TrEMBL record:
UniProt key word Membrane: yes
The UniProt record lists the keyword Transmembrane: yes
Name of the featured protein: Membrane protein
Membrane-spanning intervals of the chain: 6-39, 46-66, 86-113, 134-157
Keywords, alphabetical: Membrane, Transmembrane, Transmembrane helix
Domain of life: Bacteria
């Protein structure tokens, strides 16, 4: 009975952790770690290899970096200045604090847009750079989705066949 409940909790944490890729209000990384730790301490402490734990830690770092890197790359790719790229990163951090989950989209957009206008770009050019932050968000979400699928698949391979 307890094992069944633990398995339900593991699957629920993983599903919600993956769903957090597109629903930023959910704490995706902590949910994935909760699934891994519930399994390790509640079901089978020997199944997950050291390689898995190292990979999970590296994927965690990559997941944190994905939004920042994607926003910065897209801003630069669409002609934005270094200042706008940094503003987009700042918007990724500050936006959710001010606007909640919507801030992940609006924060980088607004800060990159305003930065480019202050630097003397036209509204149209600044809007193009701001729009690049939205593409950066989508690119970051895609990267995070792939990374999460990889570590989740690795978990299931080790949990079920090791």
């Amino acid at each position: 009975m307890v094992t069944t409940l633990l398995w339900v909790a593991v699957v629920a944490c993983m599903a919600l952790g993956f769903l957090a890729t597109v629903v930023p209000i959910l704490p995706g990384i902590p949910l994935l770690w909760a699934a891994f730790l519930l399994y390790h301490f509640g079901i089978n402490s020997a199944a997950l290899s050291a390689s898995f734990w190292i990979a999970a830690a590296l994927v965690t770092v990559a997941l944190f970096a994905a939004d920042f890197v994607a926003n910065s790359l897209f801003v630069r790719r669409f002609g934005g200045s270094k200042a706008a790229a940094w503003a987009a990163i700042a918007g990724t951090l500050v936006g959710p604090l001010v606007l909640g989950p919507l801030g992940l989209l609006v924060g980088p957009f607004l800060l990159a847009l305003v930065t480019e206008i202050v630097r003397g770009r036209s509204l149209r050019e600044a809007a193009t750079v701001g729009t690049a932050t939205l593409l950066g968000f989508l690119g970051g979400a895609l990267a995070k989705g792939v990374l999460k699928l990889v570590i989740i698949a690795w978990f299931w391979i080790e949990a079920l066949w090791r």
